[in-house]
Structure formats: structure tokens, C-alpha cells
Specification:
The chain is built from 4 helices and 7 strands. With about 190 residues, it is of the alpha+beta class. Helices cover about 20% and strands about 30% of the residues. It has a single domain, classed as 60s Ribosomal Protein L30, Chain: A (2-Layer Sandwich), CATH 3.30.1330.110. α2 crosses α4. Strands 1, 2, 3, 4, 5, 6 and 7 form a 7-stranded mixed sheet that branches.
Length: about 190
């Protein structure tokens, strides 16, 4: 199966402050999205798993491109997440096809990321935005890294398309101060704590 890409969008935000003092090291949030054809749009297909395997090279390409956009050093990436927006002729399960190729691609690009990659998906018309959840790459319980990246593309997804997305951050929320496990305290190496 061939994955047909119509366009790719990449954006990096640099957050200097959130109303408090300017951060010593600004947080960067990046998102990359690809608009792809949905071969299952408009009809029910019992076995959609061939597309999951076919998405793996795109996942790897997008993960590498996003790391590069955030400075090129995988060790600087501290948070990640993923998501998909399925055009209205598709079904929610078509967005779930991105779980494995998107998540494992980011883990591969980052080396030893241990935490599950948080995800979201929805069926929606062109121009819809999606909030991609973010957690720490090695421990899901690190509260300072609970975050989101909102992204969308004005002309996508068309009814027979899917927008697949990856997000990464270079640090905690600016002004994070609600306690909990700190990144420097990760000890269990179980993806949680």
C-alpha cells in the first residue's frame, strides 16, 4: 500500500513567558502534520491494518523532521504527543492507525523514550483544529510537562483525507509550579515515574 501525501506543515512556537518573568530557557513546542489520502473513506473495510504498516516510513520522516525543526538534538526533546483528524467520509478507527507508526517513530528518533505517547483523534471537516496532548518522554507522571499543542490546517482534512500529527517540546511549561514528580527525580525507568 502506498501512502499518498498531499502536504506537510511544520510549526515551532517559542514560549518566552506566560505572564510571569521571562524564562531563562524558553520552551519550544513543535508540531508537524501530514495530509494523506484515506483509502478507506466512504466504505467499511474490515482489515485496515495494512495501512498501519505502510505509515511507518512517514512516521519516521515526520519525527526526524520535527526533531530537526526543534534544533536537531534528540536529547533536548522532553515532551511528546500525537494525534489525527479524519475527514468526514472516514471513521474514527482510521485515525487510530497512527498510534503505532507515529508513537514508535518518535521513540525511535529520540532513542530511549520510555513513556507511552499520549494521543487523540477525531472525525471532522477541513479547518478543524486538534489539541495534541503532551507528556514527558520518560515518565508520564511528570506534572510539569502536561501540556498541549493546538494545530490544524485550513484546507484539511478533505472528506477523503486524514491529517496525522506529531508534537514535541523542549522542556516543561514555562512557569510550571504545581508540584509533583520532577523530571530530575525520574528513577523507576518504567515510563511512569
Amino acid at each position: 500500500m502506498e501512502i499518498k501525501v498531499r502536504k506537510i506543515m511544520c510549526r515551532v512556537d517559542e514560549i518566552l513567558h506566560e505572564g510571569g518573568p521571562v524564562a531563562e530557557v524558553p520552551q519550544k513546542k513543535g508540531v508537524i502534520m501530514a495530509v494523506i489520502a484515506n483509502p478507506y473513506a466512504g466504505h467499511y473495510e474490515a482489515d485496515i491494518t495494512p495501512m498501519m504498516k505502510a505509515l511507518e516510513p512517514l512516521g519516521a520522516e515526520l519525527a526526524d523532521r520535527l526533531v530537526a525543526a526543534l534544533g536537531g538534538d534528540p536529547a533536548r526533546i522532553e515532551g511528546y504527543g500525537k494525534g489525527a483528524i479524519v475527514g468526514v467520509e472516514g471513521e474514527l478507527e482510521h485515525g487510530a492507525l497512527w498510534h503505532v507508526p507515529g508513537g514508535y517513530a518518535m521513540r525511535g528518533a529520540l532513542g530511549e523514550a520510555l513513556a507511552i505517547v499520549p494521543s487523540t483523534k477525531k472525525v471532522a471537516p477541513a479547518g478543524t483544529e486538534i489539541d495534541l496532548p503532551i507528556t514527558h518522554v520518560n515518565a508520564s507522571y511528570v506534572r510539569s510537562h502536561f501540556d498541549t499543542v493546538t494545530a490544524g490546517i485550513s484546507d484539511a482534512p478533505k472528506p477523503d483525507e486524514i491529517v496525522v500529527a506529531l508534537a514535541m517540546t523542549t522542556g516543561p511549561r514555562v512557569h510550571a509550579r504545581v508540584g509533583g514528580l520532577k523530571a530530575a527525580e525520574i528513577s523507576k525507568k518504567d515510563g511512569l515515574r
